[in-house]
Design brief:
alpha/beta; Arc Repressor Mutant, subunit A; 2 domains; three-stranded antiparallel sheet; 10 helices
């Protein structure tokens, strides 16, 4: 099969499945994985696809079901978010000060903290999280104020950053839009949200990503951290050996 024929077949597979994997393409076309990677790199230059770690997606692909508005996302994939939250809460100890960013997965983590009756301090800039802690005396809750961002249902911007300035957190839990292992970047869509996330990472002894596993296939527009900045990732299911190996290279734990 000629190179152009292979490229056309890759495009057809992308139309059918939205993403392709290097290993699968290598077996399908009976060529080396390096050959497939060169194909994908060449096609990305032409804006025919977007490379991801271990494969590629269509150039117009966003994270499935993801948009910038919290109210439309918080009731989606609840089971997966709850599984992540149950793992994350095990990392928290009585007396900790933690930061929860504007993430719909962190809403589920807040619920788990309440169930466990942990004696901790929680800092957040998200109203959904603040509402959960209004009557819970065991949690010392601090809401960072400032400019209200309606799409995130929380406070972002310079005033919020100033309020965070003097805090130091034992752990922060960060939501993710895209986790690009290929380029070692962790991304979100809203720049103000990304700046807050970056500040929280820098002010935390440990930082964990709370993310559904399919976010390894996607990218967003604003980089707020690299995997070298992160203590670990918390996903709802077992990760592939390929992803595990790459995370090990970055010395990032899998919870």
């Amino acid at each position: 099969m000629f190179v152009e024929e292979r490229h056309q077949e890759i495009l057809r597979l992308l139309e059918e499945n939205e993403k392709v994997k290097v290993k699968d393409l290598s077996k399908r076309f009976e060529v080396t994985e390096d050959c497939i990677r060169k194909d994908l790199a060449s096609m990305e230059v032409k804006n025919l696809l977007k490379r991801t770690y271990g494969g590629a997606v269509r150039p117009d692909t966003l994270h499935p079901g993801h948009n910038n508005i919290v109210s439309t996302r918080k009731d989606k994939n609840i089971k997966e978010k709850q599984q992540i939250a149950k793992k994350a809460v095990e990392l928290i100890r009585n007396g900790d000060m933690i930061f929860l960013d504007t993430s719909t997965t962190n809403i589920e983590l807040a619920k788990e903290i309440i169930k466990r009756e942990l004696q901790i301090t929680v800092v957040s800039c998200m109203l959904d999280i603040a509402e959960l802690f209004t009557t819970k005396k065991n949690v010392n809750f601090i809401l960072l104020g400032g400019q209200f961002n309606r799409s995130q249902n929380g406070f972002l911007g310079e005033l919020t950053r100033q309020m965070m300035e003097n805090f130091r957190f034992d752990i922060c839990f960060m939501g993710v839009v895209g986790a690009d292992l290929f380029n070692n970047v962790i991304t979100t869509y809203v720049p103000e949200d990304g700046i807050m996330k970056r500040d929280a990472v820098q002010k935390s002894s440990q930082c964990y990503l709370v993310m559904e596993s399919n976010k390894f296939d996607f990218k967003a527009n604003y980089v707020y951290a690299t995997f070298n900045d992160i203590e670990g990732v918390i996903c709802e299911r077992e990760l592939s050996e390929e992803i595990k190996k790459k995370l090990e290279e970055y010395q990032t734990k899998i919870i």
